[in-house]
């Protein structure tokens, strides 16, 4: 009280700079950016590049977090005063100060459109990140879909649509001829999305396309992205730039949308029973074709295995939890599948950084009072926004103001569980996640019901009162099922009490908002809040890097590892040695002092200590009953899983009551935006890194210090291993010089036809590889990059372990992998000997 929130933190000015991972050039730079000293370089870069408004280099350009927080918080507060949300000026001032404090201390953040637009003069005050559109079976409606979608992208948001009302390519047009079908019209919408940058920024436009499983064009829909992905692989192998931002990648169709198949319980049961499934004409309702449900399910799973699309949305489950079913059914979702509500509606999102509400290393108490207060402040801010924001169409504006859908959620769940010493894939981890999620949504609905007592319920409440209260009771009943032996009693009691209050106040006052919560991916705002993990996700890896869509890369190092180790009782010196091992090896496996029972605590989505993919869907099943909408969550599967594994995971997701599931098999796409760090630049105890690059590997990263590479020369007297080979008509020898510990440190090649161009090139190639190995490039990285290269000579070999190779380079590095890489790494790379 009496202290301005900006005076409660220490501020500093620093330069924001992001370098391009291809060539080290500066992709973005702004000097003298003012942020709290506690903010990382990564968060500073995100703020400056993504959320500062005004022309770069001009006096109108924002340069301080204070300006951004003032712009957003002051605008929301002024709207709240105008609409009567506060009893007096003192309450309004307190709300304003608390909102700014939560923003600058990285405790919570709005979705990107709020930062893009709110308080910026001369632009529509669009605040929603999520839109659901609709389309009818007319050319006018289809063309209007293109226009509405483009308008949404321009404002910095994304949209989803269900195309099942568009007649199939098997049906006739009124004037004669055959219809194009929805998949054909998707091409035009995809091209539009690829052209328009989100909010005029460097974010890629986001969109979702959905088709019901009984639509006659469902098979074309299932395969449309997988076929394009095959084209991308061919072009990549031919030397075209297939990076996510590469100019050649733009020629690949359907890549700007997430595709999902909408399935019912009837279809899923038909899959289980091995029954037939009818595809129904849109125009007449007649059966166009009868297929086997299992065959259709297998096609969905096979396409997903190939390219991560389509996802699946479970229609019966979605509409069972619908709070406005009397008005209309839920047909669509936003691009990430977390917002599911009426057609032609919007949802503004915000997320809370969970790790800020956990006690210090010696105290695992969750700050229930602080957390619920943050829920109240941010939920109120979102409620003020929904009534004052601009919308791209009158239809969306009317539905959104009538039903006032909000999407409060969280980030850093994975980091919080790790800090608690709980494995993500454990009963304890799932119980904690369920309790925190129940507290968030329960308190949000209780806040909504209190607001309804002052401002009135949402306009569509009267028609939907029965459904609204029924769903609230379903949430409350689910909270009673959380295992009280696995969660602190204070947290669980608060969660259950919040639902009792929501049901009681909702029955008396109605509720102000037809939806309260979603779990969004929080990709960009998660970085803004310095989160180790995004949304509901576990960490991708203890050390990793992310390619920014606008160019450049950013290193994201898990800051929770030492905290978790201290929580588990390790001594300071042990913690330091384990962390140093992780820094050097990019893995916690094999680190000194670590007890075997603690290894699962540090399991991640990818890497050599990965969470089993069933653990991902089980976590979703644990929190879904406490979310108004759905969960944006990628279920990461290792590269070696089968199509059958994918199919079983789809079935399990349905059985767990999840509303939607998206699966990503590692390396299934040519352009992969988030990848594991291969090798970090290391310099003493440097905390972070700002500019610099490994000269050999493709991946570069931002570092604070430039690290001088060091060469580990081979001993003068060393062991070597020579193998002879024949590939097609080419015969040769490869000699590998080894370090004392058996690692390869040099290779020499001698191929037939000495003096030929091929022999000379291979000599130079061997020298460059030898230098790379001695400067620290792991053999694993070479094998991953250079196998599967295609050029002559190619074909059969005389090697009993490797019978076929696509090129000389492919054979040599497969041979090196078999000789020098452990089996687990070779399995990850898909390189196994014939024996």
Question: What features would you describe in this structure?
Answer:
This protein has 835 residues and is of the alpha/beta class. Among the domains are: 1-105, no CATH class; 720-829, no CATH class. The chain is 40% helix and 16% strand. The protein has 25 helices and 24 strands. The strands form seven sheets. Strands 3, 4, 5, 8, 9, 12, 13, 14, 17 and 18 form a ten-stranded mixed beta sheet that branches. A three-stranded antiparallel beta sheet has the order 16-15-19, with no helix packed on it. A three-stranded antiparallel beta sheet has the order 20-21-22. Helix 5 packs parallel to helix 6, helix 7 runs parallel beside helix 9 (293-307) and helix 15 packs antiparallel against helix 16. It is globular, with a radius of gyration of 28 Å. Its cofactor is adenosylcob(III)alamin. Residues 128-664 form the Ribonucleotide reductase large subunit C-terminal domain. Belongs to the ribonucleoside diphosphate reductase class-2 family. It catalyses: a 2'-deoxyribonucleoside 5'-diphosphate + [thioredoxin]-disulfide + H2O = a ribonucleoside 5'-diphosphate + [thioredoxin]-dithiol. Keywords: Cobalamin, Cobalt, Disulfide bond, DNA synthesis, Nucleotide-binding, Oxidoreductase.
